[in-house]
Structure formats: structure tokens, C-alpha cells
Amino acid sequence: MVIKTATFVKSSGKWQECPEPNMPEYAFIGRSNVGKSSLINAMMNHKDLAKTSGTPGKTQLINHFLVNENWYLTDLPGYGYAKVSKSIRKDFEKLITNYILNRKNLVNLFVLVDSRHKPQAIDLEFIQWCGESGVPFSIVFTKVDKLKPNTAIQNVEHYKAELHKTWEDLPEIYVTSAEKKEGCDEILHFIQKTNEFLINNSVSFDE
Predict the structure, then answer these.
(1) pLDDT score recorded for residue 109
(2) 62-67 and 6-12 strand pairing
(3) How many CB atoms lie within 10 A of CB 14?
(4) Domain ranges, residue 61
(5) Is residue 146 included in any domain, yes or no?
(6) Which residues are paired to 31 by β-bridges?
(7) Which CATH number characterizes residue 196's domain?
(8) What positions does the domain EngB-type G occupy (predicted)?
(9) CA distance to 60, 117, 125, 200, per residue, from 194 (Å)
């Protein structure tokens, strides 16, 4: 997929405030500091489309971007904030879950996981929730450029082994580096093929 245009549409504090659900939508989510904004910018060939920050939890709203005038890319708040109060954390969790469960044009959720770490309970719990909730999703390992190739492979395989304890079949898995743009084309190819499938099967999200 060639990215011709990628423009910011709006930020929403409630899922009901999101843009009209009339196009396919692909959302990105992960723990704070997983490299979500950097990966989005790398995919879109745009240095600062999604705002990056050294402060985990900077994204506190649902941010929509219109890509190629025909699909939405959504930057969701991260989960697992360590430095915010429990009440604020619950507000974020409510915002995220309500969006994921109610956004009718959400075609796929990309769950980002930091490849540098061993499987984290919070990631495994979120992935389990997606499965139990019937949410279509893929797993995206980030920051593989920070590791030696063999270590990156081992960490991903370790994660797969952990998931296989409760999952018979795993979702699509992508291994990425925002810095080197590794894996970006594969994700965009998946989005393009999915959009083509929706068009060919006359799937409409309009009321």
C-alpha cells in the first residue's frame, strides 16, 4: 500500500464522539512506552503525525487519522499506566473497552508488545480479553532493532509458547522496528488486502 495522504481528523474523549463509522477502521493499542506513536509515524511516512513523548501515558484520547481518504487509523490510549491514579486508570480502561466493543467499523485491533521484555501479565490479560470478547486482533512486536536478531527471535518464540498455553491458534503476528521501518509494509499489506475483501464483498458500515 502506498500512503498518499494521512491527516489528523479529531481527538475524542468518548467513543460516541468518534468520527462517523462509515469507513474501515484499524486501531493500535499497547502498554505505555511500547513505541506506538513511532510505529504509526513510520507506517505513514510522517515524522510527527502521531505525537511521541518521553512521558508514558501521553495519549489520553482516541485519536483518528484518515488515510488515503478511505480508511481510519486510530491511535488508542495505552493500558497499564504505572504513574496515574486508580480512578484515572479506570477512566482510561472504560474509554478503551467501550470503544473496542462498540465501534462497529473497527475491522482489526493491532496489539503492540515490546519485544525487549519477557511476556508481561498485563499484555497476556489484554490479549485474553480480546479473544474472549470476540475482538479481531493481531499482535505487533515492537523495537526489535534494540535487540540482537537471535534474541528478538527467541523473545517472540517465548511469547508464542506462553500464548499457546491458552490459545490453540494464534492471531497474525508482526515483528517491527519503527526506526528501520521493518514490518510496516506487512501491516499495510494486511490492511490493503482486508479493505479489498470488504469492497469485493460489498461490506458497508453506513447506517
Answers:
(1) 97
(2) antiparallel
(3) 12
(4) 6-200
(5) yes
(6) 79
(7) 3.40.50.300
(8) 22-197
(9) 28, 30, 27, 10
| Per-position b or e across 120-152, b if 16+ CB within 10 A of its CB | eeebbebbeebeeeebebbbbbbbbeebeeeeb
Tens-place pLDDT, residues 75-119: 998 876 555 556 555 666 788 889 999 999 999 999 999 998 888
Count: domains in the chain = 1
SS3 28: strand
Domain-located, residue 205: no
Is residue 1 included in any domain, yes or no?
Answer: no
Give the global pTM: 0.90
Whether 153 is covered by a domain: the verdict is yes
**136, amino acid identity:** P
User: In the chain, helix, strand, coil percent, each to 5?
Assistant: 35, 20, 40
pLDDT band at 55 (very low <50, low <70, confident <90, very high): very low
- Edge-to-edge strand ranges of the sheet holding 25-30: 6-12, 62-67, 71-75, 25-30, 106-114, 137-142, 173-175
Report the distance separating Cα 191 and Cα 165, nearest Å: 29
